């Protein structure tokens, strides 16, 4: 069976929904509807990136093509570049640890990789606070404030859900684009993760502050919110 003909990320999306504030057992139907919308939106996003690639005459979609598409939101762009930088540092650090003899690890000081901020010459300076990110951190604090140790560990595990980790082939088929370098797969996985968060957050905004989040997100809420985002001609993250 082709991955493109079925829902392949139900489990991951349900975990994400819970970590974003949905009930502990989100609906399968809701997760699958989100996956359907997500597939459409990430392919739409990649189509725009591909247009940029064609203009610059590149062979494959690269990180700058992706960054250029979201350039009008400096904070969103900076969050993406911070993610890329973190992945690069993590990869270099893991490589250094692997190249060091395990018997010497206790006595060897492994230098932390140099931080090199990813920046393009067309980028505008980011000014002020990232209110969106601050609000998100506050939401996590609120969600976890009264959790037991076991509940928090499960919540933290759900927050680690990924479209890409150990699912590279499946994710590439999900994206539906062939001219994508492997080195941007994690970034596209991050964008998909953010798309799920953005849709979820918009649903909770529509519910209002006084409406309980204990009721699982419904397919109807997903459809209504996705339609509104499309009408506003916004990116889904």
TrEMBL record:
Pfam family membership, one: TFIID-18kDa
GO MF assignments: protein heterodimerization activity; transferase activity
Gene Ontology cellular component terms for the protein in this record: nucleus
Compartment(s) of residence: Nucleus
SUPFAM superfamilies, per database record: Histone-fold (SSF47113)
GO biological process, one term: transcription by RNA polymerase II
Taxonomic superkingdom: Eukaryota
InterPro entries, alphabetized: Histone-fold, TFIID_TAF13
Keyword Transcription regulation: yes
Keyword list, A-Z: Nucleus, Transcription, Transcription regulation, Transferase
Signal peptide residues on this chain, from the entry's feature table: none
PANTHER family: TRANSCRIPTION INITIATION FACTOR TFIID/SUPT3-RELATED, TRANSCRIPTION INITIATION PROTEIN SPT3 HOMOLOG
Family: Belongs to the SPT3 family.
Name assigned to this protein: Histone acetyltransferase PCAF/SAGA, subunit SUPT3H/SPT3
Source organism per UniProt: Pseudoloma neurophilia
Taxonomic lineage of the native organism: Eukaryota, Fungi, Fungi incertae sedis, Microsporidia, Pseudoloma
């Amino acid at each position: 069976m082709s991955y493109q003909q079925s829902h392949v990320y139900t489990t991951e999306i349900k975990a994400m929904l819970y970590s974003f504030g949905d009930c502990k057992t989100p609906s399968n139907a809701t997760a699958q509807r989100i996956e359907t919308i997500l597939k459409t939106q990430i392919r739409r996003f990649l189509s725009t990136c591909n247009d940029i690639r064609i203009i610059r005459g590149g062979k494959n979609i690269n990180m700058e093509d992706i960054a250029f598409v979201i350039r009008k939101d400096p904070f969103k762009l900076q969050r993406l570049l911070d993610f890329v930088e973190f992945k690069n540092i993590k990869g270099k650090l893991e490589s250094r640890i692997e190249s060091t003899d395990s018997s010497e690890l206790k006595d060897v000081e492994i230098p932390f990789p140099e931080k090199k901020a990813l920046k393009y010459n067309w980028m505008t300076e980011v000014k002020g606070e990232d209110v969106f990110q601050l609000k998100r951190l506050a939401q996590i604090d609120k969600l976890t404030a009264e959790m037991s140790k076991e509940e928090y560990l499960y919540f933290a595990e759900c927050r680690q859900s990924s479209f890409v980790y150990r699912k590279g082939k499946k994710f590439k088929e999900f994206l539906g684009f062939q001219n994508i370098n492997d080195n941007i797969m994690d970034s596209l996985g991050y964008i998909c993760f953010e798309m799920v968060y953005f849709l979820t957050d918009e649903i909770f905004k529509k519910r209002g502050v006084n409406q309980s989040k204990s009721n699982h997100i419904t397919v109807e809420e997903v459809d209504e919110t996705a339609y509104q985002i499309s009408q506003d001609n916004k990116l889904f993250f």
